[in-house]
Structures are given as structure tokens and as C-alpha cells.
Amino acid sequence: MPLSPDQAAEITAQRAQTTPTRRVTSPGMEERLYTAHPVLDHGFVRVIDYMGDDAAICQAARVSYGKGTKSVSNDEGLIRYLMRHWHSTPFEMCEIKLHVKLPVFVARQWIRHRTANVNEYSARYSILDREFYIPAPDALAAQSTVNNQGRGELLEGEEAARVLEMLKSDAMRAYDHYEAMLSTEGQKGLARELARMNLPANIYTQWYWKVDLHNLFHFLRLRADVHAQYEIRVYAETICEIVADWVPAAFKAFEDYRMGGVNLSATALDCIRRMLKGEEVTQENSGMSKGEWREFEGVLGG
Question: What is an example of a GO molecular function annotated in this UniProt entry (predicted)?
Fold first, then answer.
């Protein structure tokens, strides 16, 4: 259960409050504020605060680039120009603060994006809840035979059942020992900062994560990609839905130029030019390695 009844009631109370303001607001984001969007079995993402909108991006761009933007007839066109030409600074004028509940092993992937401000729930001061991520059966897969950091075929039958049982029993046993070490009944009890070391990587943690839109787009480009690990990808996909309501023009440009676009090397671009001229181009005469050629064929749909 992502939220307790008390937490749900607190969010309802927050959403019932309204305050007059002179600052720019985004109608789509105002509807999202404080709402917890469920992710995985016990996780969620919710917006705590935000700054800016599509217009704020354009305002900053026109200050930064002056007369160079006068040929752009509208804000959406300007935003697409900025995205297309990798002018990232104006997107940094928008910020978002998220409250995220996620498994520790997902958090360790997430924290590699070092361009945000993070404050995590501290197990030195507080006791973690007995909540663990247990994959759904359709998320249990064998190691990929072609990708050292990916998944292959689904586990089935007795093997899948055995793996799920081990995940559940190991997590519960570790938490039982965690509670036993913390207990002060008939003993001193181990310090929380030490007892936490026994907990598994699938236990849930929480943090506040504040990031500007430019760096958020970089996070989403990598983590919402089909090749990203499923458990972090579903968080990224949820954030994509939120961002689409917050800055619709910027997100549309991001989808088009970053998520839906590709970067080609000079060699790959030369191969395309040769193909357009009618030349037969193969891996052997392309100047690419086998790996590069395979990826190039994937881009072309070959």
C-alpha cells in the first residue's frame, strides 16, 4: 500500500488549501500538486512544489539570446528551436520538487544523476517500514544472453515460484532480525545506524528530489528509454506524464527531438548520403564496427 490512511488524509487536506499568488502557475501542474501517483507495489511519485512554465523558458531565452530570437514567431516555435539546437540554459529556469518512494536498489541507480538536490529518509534516526519490492511474475526474467546488464526470457513455473518465495522470505527474515537487533527488551539494542546494514536492497526508502527541467529531461531521456531497467523506467514514465501537464510545449519538443530522435555519427551520416545516391553500403564498406553497424541498422529499421 503506497499510502497509509493518515498520509492520504494529509494529502487531501493539502490539496484543499488555496493561496492567492502573483507568481506564474501551470494549470496542469496545479492539478498534480501533492497527489501520490502509485508506482510498483509500494512506491509513488508526487509533486511537492514547482517553479516556472513554458512561458518562463521563453522569457529566459529572450533575455539570454536577445535579438537572435526575433525570427521565432511564437513560444512553441522558440522552445522547439532551443531544443533542436541544444540551448539548454532556458530550460534550467523551471524547477520541480518531487517526493518519491522507491526501492533502495532503484535509488542507487537514480542517485547517479548528480545534478539534483536530494534529501533522503534517514535510517540513522528513524526505523524503516516493513515494505519490500517484490516483482510481479511478468517482471521475473533470466539474464540476457546479448546484454550484460539486461533481461532475457521470463522465468516460468516452479523456477519463478521458487525465486519469488526466496525474495519474500529473505526480505522478511532480514526485517525480523532488524527488529530483533533494535529491540531494547532485555538488551541494550543495536544502534539504528548499524542495524540498517542488515536490510536488503529491495526495502523501500523515500526522498525529496529537486531538479531543473534541463537535467530532468536528461534523466528522462535515459530512464524512460525502453532499454532502461523496468523498475526505474516506470518511475520515469510516471514523471513524464507529470511533466507533460506542467510544460506541454517543452515536453512535446523533448519527445520529438530527444526521445523520438537519434544522434548520428559523421560516419553514419556519410553512409546515409551514399545510400541516397543509390550506392550499396554494407558493414564491410561502411567504416563501422559490427556493433556500430548493428545499431545503425536498428535506427534505419533494417
Answer: flavin adenine dinucleotide binding
Q: Which residues contact 207 (CB under 8 A, 6 or more apart)?
A: 99, 100, 102, 107, 118, 119, 120, 121
Q: Which three cell numbers stand for residue 252?
A: 512535446
Q: Which whole number is the average pLDDT over 134-149?
A: 85
Please tell me whether the overall predicted TM-score, pTM, comes out greater than 0.85 for this model: yes
Q: Domain total for the chain?
A: 3
Q: Is the pLDDT of residue 1 over 70?
A: no
Residues 80 and 216 placed together within one structural domain of the fold: yes
Whether 155 and 292 map to the same domain: the answer is no
Q: Catalytic residue among 46, 80, 223, 258, which? A: 223
Residue after which a domain boundary falls, among 182, 200, 218: 200
Annotated binding site for dUMP: 109-112, 120-124, 196, 223
pLDDT at 89 over 90: yes
Range of the domain at 119: 5-133+202-259
Question: Among the three residues 200, 217, 235, which one is the final residue of a domain in this structure?
Answer: 200
Q: What percentage of the chain carries pLDDT values higher than 90? A: 76
pLDDT at residue 144 above 60? yes
| Cβ atoms of residues 98 and 45 within 8 Å | yes
The pLDDT of residue 208: 97
Residues 181 and 47 in one domain: no
* Helix (H/G/I), strand (E/B), else coil: 65: helix
Binding residues for FAD: 89, 112-114, 120, 212-214, 218
Residues 215 and 168 in one domain: no
pLDDT above 90 for 255: yes
pLDDT (average), residues 153-182: 95
Residues of each annotated binding site: 89, 109-114, 120-124, 196, 212-214, 218, 223
Asked about 233 being catalytic, the answer comes back as no
CB within 8 A of 49, min separation 6: which ones? Answer: 96, 97
Asked if the model's pLDDT at residue 7 lies above 90, the reply is: no
